[in-house]
Design goal:
alpha+beta; endopeptidase fold (from Nostoc punctiforme); two-stranded antiparallel sheet; 10 strands
């Protein structure tokens, strides 16, 4: 009977060989071109995933900017228009008055009476005639249409008006009103409803009636 004791050396030798083989590193196939085993490729390292940064709600919250383009309602528009007019009036009052304006204001309060030319009763051409005679010593006709056609006067464009120029109003067919241009884009004249007064050139009534200007000085 075959003795098991004889197999012990073979069993131990096999176990040692198996242990040594398992401890060797894994090798790739033999490459004849290089005369050695192919190197084991390095495993690709996967970079750790970055955790998304959590921003506190307090940092992300932003206050809404004020609405500077907010539309004004009708009441606010009315108040803004009134304030604009008051500012314009205040600027006109604070502006220093010229000698011509001071002289012409001597007729302020005169009532409009057609054909008259005094400091109490006058029409538009009579007022202009008296001021020009007293301040410039220039004699003009007592007629707005004749003043407009007077060859001594030089035509002046709307953008080149200077204080003392005569400004004419009416229609394409007839000149029926005249005044004297003042600083600040105003003119002094004898109105049929309010007598001698000062009005802005952009006046709602007179603005669209403007026909031209002439310079006599």
């Amino acid at each position: 009977m075959f003795s098991l004791y004889r197999l012990v050396p073979f069993i131990l030798a096999s176990a040692c060989l198996w242990y040594i083989g398992c401890s060797f590193p894994v090798r790739t196939g033999y490459d004849r071109n290089i005369g050695d085993y192919k190197p084991v490729p390095a495993s690709e390292t996967v970079p750790p995933k970055e955790e998304p940064q959590v921003i506190p709600a307090q940092e992300t919250a932003q206050e809404a900017p004020p609405d500077s383009n907010r539309h004004l309602n009708s009441a606010e528009k009315a108040r803004a228009a009134i304030k604009k007019k008051e500012t314009a009036k205040a600027a006109q009052k604070s502006a220093p008055k010229s000698d011509l304006e001071t002289y012409a204001r001597g007729w302020m309060g005169a009532k409009y009476v057609y054909g008259k030319a005094t400091k109490t009763k006058t029409d538009c051409s009579g007022f202009v005639m008296q001021v020009y005679k007293g301040y410039y010593n220039i004699a003009l006709d007592h007629s707005s249409s004749k003043m407009y056609k007077d060859s001594r006067g030089k035509s002046v464009s709307r953008g080149s008006l200077k204080e003392g120029d005569l400004v004419f109003f009416g229609s394409l067919w007839k000149i029926d009103h005249v005044g004297i241009y003042l600083r600040g884009d105003r003119f002094i004249h004898a109105s049929t409803s309010k007598g001698v007064m000062i009005s802005p050139m952009q006046d709602k009534y007179w603005g669209h009636k403007y026909q031209g200007a002439r310079r006599f000085k």
